[in-house]
Design goal:
- The protein is mainly α.
- About 95% of the residues lie in helices and about 0% in strands.
- The protein is flat and about 70 Å long.
Amino acid sequence: MLNTEILTTAKTYFDQASVKADEYSGLLTEAQRLIVENFGQTGLYAAYIMVAALTLFVLSKLVKLTFSTLKYLVLPAFVLAFAGSFFVPYSFTALLPVTVSVCSLLLLFKG
């Protein structure tokens, strides 16, 4: 009984997602038609290159942010919490939120 409810719910979500995908697909097709109509085929190639360049730029910024977070937040917070658990009477799990907060401020001011 429960499995049929889950399958029915999943089918409705899938149907809604496919309707949205068709809507966006039509929007992209209309944008392509508009670009070709106004700027020609070379304009469409330029639009593809622009979208690819913007995508690469955003991905590079996300990768940089991820590595900065690992370098200035995650690793130092764990090391400080681990080292602090030896020198103060608090446990690792009690110190971790404090060290994450301190390292977050470091990352924020580091930029």
